[in-house]
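User: I'm new to structure prediction. If I give you an amino acid sequence, what do you actually give back? Let's try with this one:
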Amino acid sequence: VQLVESGGGLVQPGEALTLSCVASGFTFNHYAIQWHRQTPGKERELVAGISSNGNGNNLYADSVKGRVTISRDNTKNTAFLQMSSLKPGDTAVYYCQAIMGRSACWGQGTQVTVSA
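Assistant: Good question. You get back a string of structure tokens that encode the predicted 3D arrangement of the chain. For your 116 residues, that looks like this:
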């Protein structure tokens, strides 16, 4: 069971970035996906969530609503987090989580740094 995030990097304020989360070792389309982020000394924060089939209302944290879109391609076992109008406050390690009932797994994270 594995989740691998990618797409992080250093960007300037106002720029965009798309993160990817590739899953393997489990039935991806049975699991909801959430993106979380964490900065040193702070609790991990839920950023966005999407259901197992991608239908229905996605979940977004108030801090990113309108700037972030979560999506998934179940044919490619991949989830995405599209981020735009990035701010320095978005700087964090971003983690992908797969959830089905009480079963959950995490990726290793990808660093996003927003700085001029």
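You can read the tokens as a compact description of the fold. Here is one thing that stands out. The chain has a mean pLDDT of 96.
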